[in-house]
Specification:
Elongation Factor Tu (Ef-tu), domain 3, single chain, 22 strands, Rossmann fold, alpha+beta
Length: about 425
C-alpha cells in the first residue's frame, strides 16, 4: 500500500482536532484503551458524547486553552492506503510549527467554518501551502450542521475560496461540505446534503492520485553512506548507499557526481541485497559505478541527461524558527538532504507578509515565525534544484553551530 501524508490547517475553533478525531473514530483506528482514556477525560461524558479533539490535542496547555500549539502526528490505515496526519496549529505565532508539519505533506486539508467563510487565517494557511508547493488542497467546509446544511452557504464559500486559489496558483482544489462533530461526509456520504455529489473525505483521501508528487524525470541520488568492506570476500566492493529522491536509475546510465562534476556509468544497482536492472524514487538502493571516483556522504549522483544546479550562493525563502533573531552575518550549518556545509547569511532582501503575500522592505533582522527572502553563502558548492520545481532537492535547513538546533527552514529559489 502507498502512503499519503496530509496536514490539517484552519482558524482556531474551526474543528481541526475534532475532524481528525472523527476520522480516526469512524474508521475504527483507535485502540480500545485509548478510547477508554478519552471517554474518561471527555467534558461531555454526562451526555454520553466523546470529545474527539482530545485524540490530537495532547499537550496539557492545548487542552486547557482549547487550541493546538504543537504539530500532532497520527497514523492510521484502511484496506486501501496508509496515512500520516499532521494536525497543525492555526495561530500566527505558531507559523513555524505549520511549516514543519507541511514540509513533507502530499496534501493539505484547509478547514473553513461554514458560519464564518473564508477568513484571514484561511488565506495564510493557503499561502503557506502554496509556498511549500503542496499540490493537492482539500477545502473542508465544516460545521454545515450549524447552517442547516445550506447549499447556498457552501456555494458562496466555494466562490470566495476559488479567488484565493487562483491568486496563489493552486490548481488541484477539492471542496467537501461536512460536519466533523456529527460525522457527516467524513467516512460515509451524508444523506443530509443530497445536493452534494462528490465523495466523502475518507473516500477522497483513499482515491486521490499522489504519484504525481514523485518526480520520476530528474534523477537525484544523495549519497548517505559509502560501503567499502575491504574483506577478503569483498576486497574490491565499493557501493554508494542512499535513497533515490527523484527519477529513475538504470544499469548502463551515464551519471554525473556533483558537486565535483565527474561523469561515470552505473555498473550495478542493489535493492535489498539483490541486483536489479533499474530502481526509482523513493527506493533505497546501493549504487555501483564503473569508475573509482572520490565520492563521500552528501555528494549527489545525478542522471547526466537531467543536470542539477550547483552554486555557493543561494537565494532562499526562510521561515525563521528560533527565539534568537536571524541577523545578516550570522553563521550556520546548512543541510540539504545528506549534505552539510558551513554557511553565512549575506543579507535579507525582504520580509514576506504571510497574510497577503506582500513584500515588506528588508528588515534588519528576522524574528521568530518570520518568512524572509535571504542570500546565503556556503563554504563549498551545493547541488540543488528550485523548491518549486523539485521539492525533494530544493528544501534545506539552517542549524545552529553550537546548539545543533534547527533554526530555519529554507526553500531554495
Amino acid at each position: 500500500m502507498d502512503l499519503l501524508r496530509f496536514i490539517t490547517a484552519g482558524s482556531v475553533d474551526d474543528g481541526k482536532s475534532t475532524l481528525i478525531g472523527r476520522l480516526l473514530y469512524d474508521s475504527k483506528s483507535i485502540m480500545i484503551d485509548q478510547l477508554e482514556a478519552i471517554e474518561r477525560q471527555s467534558k461531555n461524558k454526562e451526555e454520553g458524547e466523546i470529545d474527539l479533539a482530545l485524540l490530537t490535542d495532547g499537550l496539557r496547555a492545548e487542552r486547557e486553552q482549547g487550541i493546538t500549539i504543537d504539530v500532532a502526528y497520527k497514523y492510521f490505515s484502511t484496506p486501501k492506503r496508509k496515512f500520516i496526519i499532521a494536525d497543525a496549529p492555526g495561530h500566527i505565532q505558531y507559523t513555524r510549527n505549520m511549516v514543519t508539519g507541511a514540509s513533507n505533506a502530499d496534501l493539505a486539508i484547509i478547514l473553513i467554518d461554514a458560519r464564518n467563510g473564508v477568513a484571514e487565517q484561511t488565506r495564510r494557511h493557503s499561502i503557506i501551502a502554496s509556498l511549500l508547493n503542496i499540490r493537492h488542497v482539500v477545502v473542508a467546509i465544516n460545521k454545515m450542521d450549524l447552517v442547516n446544511f445550506s447549499q447556498d452557504v457552501y456555494n458562496n464559500i466555494v466562490i470566495d475560496y476559488a479567488k484565493v486559489a487562483q491568486s496563489l496558483g493552486l490548481k488541484q482544489v477539492t471542496y467537501i461540505p461536512l460536519s466533523a462533530l456529527q460525522g457527516d461526509n467524513i467516512v460515509e456520504k451524508s444523506d443530509k446534503m443530497s445536493w452534494y455529489e462528490g465523495p466523502s473525505l475518507l473516500n477522497y483521501l483513499e482515491e486521490v492520485e499522489i504519484q504525481d508528487t514523485i518526480d520520476l524525470t530528474n534523477g537525484r541520488f544523495p549519497v548517505q553512506y559509502v560501503i567499502r568492506p575491504q574483506t577478503d570476500d569483498l576486497h574490491d566492493y565499493r557501493g554508494y548507499a542512499g535513497k533515490i529522491i527523484s527519477g529513475v536509475y538504470k544499469v548502463g546510465d551515464t551519471v554525473t557526481v556533483q558537486p565535483a562534476g565527474i561523469q561515470s556509468r552505473i555498473k550495478a544497482i542493489e535493492v535489498a541485497g539483490k541486483e536489479v536492472e533499474e530502481a526509482f524514487a523513493p527506493q533505497s538502493i546501493v549504487l555501483h559505478l564503473a569508475d573509482n571516483i572520490d565520492i563521500s556522504r552528501g555528494d549527489v549522483i545525478v542522471n547526466a541527461a537531467q543536470p542539477v544546479k550547483t552554486a555557493q550562493e543561494l537565494e532562499v525563502l526562510v521561515c525563521w524558527m528560533d527565539n534568537k533573531p536571524l541577523v545578516p552575518g550570522n553563521k550556520y550549518l546548512l543541510q540539504i538532504n545528506s549534505r552539510v556545509v558551513r554557511s553565512v547569511v549575506r543579507n535579507i532582501e525582504y520580509k514576506l507578509d504571510v497574510n497577503t503575500l506582500e513584500r515588506n522592505e528588508a528588515p534588519a533582522q528576522a524574528l521568530l515565525n518570520d518568512v524572509i527572502k535571504a542570500t546565503i553563502k556556503t563554504a563549498s558548492p551545493i547541488p540543488y534544484d528550485s523548491y518549486q520545481e523539485l521539492r525533494a532537492n530544493g528544501g534545506a535547513i539552517l542549524i545552529d553551530e553550537t546548539s545543533h538546533v534547527t533554526v530555519g527552514a529554507c526553500m531554495i529559489q
